[in-house]
Amino acid sequence: MVNASKRGPAKWQTQLDKDKVRRAFEEAIIDCYGEYEQHSGLLTMIEQEVKFPFQAQVLGNIVKVVGMEWPDDDEFGLDFVCEHKGKRHRVEARSVDLVSPFPEGHLYIAAYLDWKKTL
């Protein structure tokens, strides 16, 4: 089984300009020291800059991502709140594939996912 934290970028991420993702990362962690502050900086930027709701795909199903939550059980995690068939589900961010058109602020999600792979 592939370790999700070490797999390559999601398909949607391969369409992005790597320099723009890097700049989003640098903006999010500008005054951060250490992994905990970097995590906080990245999630804060996602919270502030990503425009919810947006469409995404989870396990082959199109869902509406309506928000985000800082998970209780993963010190460096990010969960998205997804709606599908009238029900809400928390889904770990690495399991959510964005679909075009990407939401405003998507570069911060990509920056977080790239950072998460380094842990």
Number of spatially distinct domains: 1
Shape: globular
Distance between the termini: 18 Å
- Secondary-structure-derived class: alpha+beta
Q: Percent of residues in helical segments? A: 25-40%
**What is the gyration radius calculated from CA atoms?**
14 Å
Q: What is the total tally of β strands?
A: 5
Look at the structure and give the mean pLDDT: 92
Proportion of residues in β-strands: 15-25%
Question: What does the model show?
Answer:
With about 120 residues, the protein is of the alpha+beta class. The protein has one domain. It is built from three helices and five strands; from the N terminus they run ααβββββα. β3 and β4 form a beta hairpin. α2 runs antiparallel to α3. The two termini are about 20 Å apart. The model is unreliable at about 1-5 (pLDDT under 50).
